[in-house]
């Protein structure tokens, strides 16, 4: 069976596509500045909703340590990229 490859613009991925229910730019603008800064350098195109959900989770886990929360997001991103081979 041949793998599905989703192509749109300059992105190409084997990962499952998900539909959006909110305006992505408005949702992005509402994100905390530290999370937006991390997203600017991320390798994946994160939805604002999933990034914020993980950001809040890791801030709770680390007692509000921004650097540790960013470290956890980077780890999750690396694991996701490993699946997209």
Précis, in short:
The chain has 85 residues and is mainly α. The chain contains 4 helices and 2 strands; from the N terminus they run E-E-H-H-H-H.
Q: What is the topological layout?
A:
Blueprint: E1 6-8, E2 11-13, H1 24-29, H2 33-40, H3 48-61, H4 66-83
Antiparallel strand pairs: 1-2
Helix pairs in contact: 3-4
Oligomer: single chain
Secondary-structure element sequence? EEHHHH
Number of strands: 2
- Broad shape: globular
Helical region count? Answer: 4
Beta fraction of the residues? 5-15%
Mean pLDDT reading: 86
Strand order of the largest sheet: 1-2
Helix content: 40-55%
Q: Which blocks of ≥5 consecutive residues have pLDDT under 50?
A: none
Written description of the protein model:
With 85 residues, this protein is mainly alpha-helical. The protein has a domain at 52-84. Helices cover 54% and strands 7% of the residues. A hairpin with a 2-residue loop joins strand 1 (6-8) and strand 2 (11-13). It is globular and about 35 Å long.
């Amino acid at each position: 069976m041949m793998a599905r490859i989703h192509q749109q613009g300059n992105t190409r991925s084997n990962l499952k596509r998900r539909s959006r229910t909110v305006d992505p730019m408005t949702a992005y603008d509402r994100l905390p500045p530290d999370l937006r800064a991390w997203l600017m350098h991320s390798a994946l195109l994160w939805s604002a909703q999933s990034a914020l959900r993980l950001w809040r989770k890791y801030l709770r886990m680390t007692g509000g340590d921004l650097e540790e929360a960013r470290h956890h997001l980077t780890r999750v991103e690396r694991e996701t990229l490993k699946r997209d081979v």
